Amino acid sequence: MDDHKQELLRMLKGKNVKGYDFSLQEDENKVVTSLTNSALRKPIDLNRAGAVLILSYTQVRDKKKRTTRTFKSEVKTNGPDVAIIVRDLVTNRVVSKNSFPSPTQHDSGFKTLGQCIQDFRCKHGGELQCEANRTCKTQYAALTCCLNNGNCFSVHLVFHPNSLRCQILSNVPPLEGLVLSRAS
Hints:
The protein is α+β, with helices and mostly antiparallel strands. Helix content is 21%, strand content 42%. The protein has a 6-stranded antiparallel beta sheet, with helices on one face.
């Protein structure tokens, strides 16, 4: 495991990965190593994170083709627009770009942001999870949560496929959610 981690770190050429979690997945065809931002375990406040937030670095070594590719996953914001972009680290070419939809107003009157997010997950999460598993494609949702105290937030949620049929390697790390403050 240490050899795989060191190989990935060499490829990153000194990029700051302090606080990133290492993972390794291997089967007969591929070896996938990742360094994932530990901040992904809970919703991330994009107002504090800045315009670009690195989610993970992933290296995929194809044993049969004897090739290795390294990717960087990041969140980019441009005003209210939020997207997850995956780039080939060597060529800097965009491999995938997944833009979140524009936020829609969700029920208001919650005491906490967590209550609003949980209410949305209860009312709409099953449908989004079902679609993710049907298509084997990550689903993105965006909502506006306004609290009793008048604060409003733009919340961006990710629903990853989790069925056995869809358990293939993904370039988008297991992101819990993203939050942007909004004027009420």
